Here is the input.
Amino acid sequence: MNKVVRAKYLEELGIPEYLYEHRVVPSTTKPNKKIVKCLVVECTDNNSFCIDGNSKNLLTKMLSAIGLVNKDFECVNIINSSLENELNKYEAESVLLMSDKLKTNKDNQFTTHHPSKIYGNEKLKRNSWEVLKNLKKCLK
Here is the structure.
């Protein structure tokens, strides 16, 4: 019953509204989390891919190679916060950790090299491509 109809009933019956108990239904929804296909995490203050530049361009090319477009992924830098705190802000289908300092602990988390380290290093490019192929499998 909506508030307007309820108020009319109470008025017609001459019953003061304060005599009725108001039920509070607990919320069963999750806190607001941003939903993304892929959360890309770095922990560097140099050559960040969170700002425009060579690292961001290479990261975008890498992710587009596995079928992700800009709206599918979110880039974050965790220099001043913890990985767990940042992960709790998102509902991510997969997580790409781009630092040797960050370790995976779930099946949908992958670790590879930061784009700034990949430039000109064929060995790192190959290794990163293998990680990206596994990430793509996780997204299907």
Remarks:
- Helices lie at 3-13, 54-64, 83-87, 115-118, 122-139.
- The chain is about 35% helix and 20% strand.
- The mean pLDDT is 83.
- The longest strand covers residues 34-42.
